[in-house]
UniProtKB/TrEMBL annotation:
UniProt organism field: Nitrospira lenta
Alphabetical list of PANTHER family matching this protein: 6-PYRUVOYL TETRAHYDROBIOPTERIN SYNTHASE, PYRUVOYL TETRAHYDROBIOPTERIN SYNTHASE
PROSITE patterns per record: PTPS_1
Cited Pfam families: PTPS (PF01242)
Protein name per its UniProtKB record: 6-carboxy-5,6,7,8-tetrahydropterin synthase
GO biological process per UniProt: tetrahydrobiopterin biosynthetic process
Catalytic activity: 7,8-dihydroneopterin 3'-triphosphate + H2O = 6-carboxy-5,6,7,8-tetrahydropterin + triphosphate + acetaldehyde + 2 H(+)
Sequence similarity: Belongs to the PTPS family. QueD subfamily.
Length: 143
């Protein structure tokens, strides 16, 4: 019997600007519009982390929530809260889109939780935008 899954919610506030050095100033403006404003803008990001255990466990639960909190706080919240995402070394050559952010958060967490237990990471950027990654297929949605 499987164990089901648990999803835990985390938050951080960060600034960013959609911009790539691979495009000209004019093309950046054309592609990213207001999100390319040189002054940047901010979001109250919400990160949803889903953990699931394969197989049977005597405890009847997945990973301990306190342990997950420690990992996500150290690896994600402390790293990004009240920062400019564009200054993060991982975004030196990648645009700070939600698509790229959710992939980066997955990569930062997948090595920290027991193998096979990270099932999904979702990033809510605005009231209407969220991004999901399950390790194989990226889903960007606008509701
Ligand atoms: N494919 C993507 N498109 C956009 C992304 C992204 O990450 N991937 N990001 C943005 C912006 O960062 C942005 O701040 C969201 O802007 P906007 O479209 O204005 O968002 P909302 O309409 O949902 O929010 P409002 O607060 O109502 O403007 C844009 N596109
Ligand atoms: Zn934005």
């Amino acid at each position: 019997m499987g164990q089901g899954s648990i999803t835990r919610r985390y938050r951080f506030c960060a600034a960013h600007r959609l911009h790539t050095d691979y495009l000209s100033i004019e093309d950046n403006r054309a592609v990213f519009g207001k999100c390319n404003n040189p002054n940047g803008h901010g979001h109250n990001y919400v990160v949803l982390v889903t953990i699931g255990s394969p197989g049977v466990s005597q405890s009847g639960r997945t990973m301990d929530i306190d342990a997950l909190d420690r990992i996500v706080t150290e690896r994600i919240v402390t790293r990004f809260d009240h920062r400019d995402l564009n200054q993060d070394p991982e975004f030196a050559t990648r645009t700070t889109t939600g698509e790229n952010l959710v992939l980066l958060i997955w990569d930062l967490l997948v090595t920290q939780v027991p193998e096979g237990q990270l099932k999904k990471v979702a990033v809510v950027e605005t009231r209407d935008n969220y991004f999901e990654y399950t390790g194989s297929a990226l889903v960007a949605a606008r509701s």
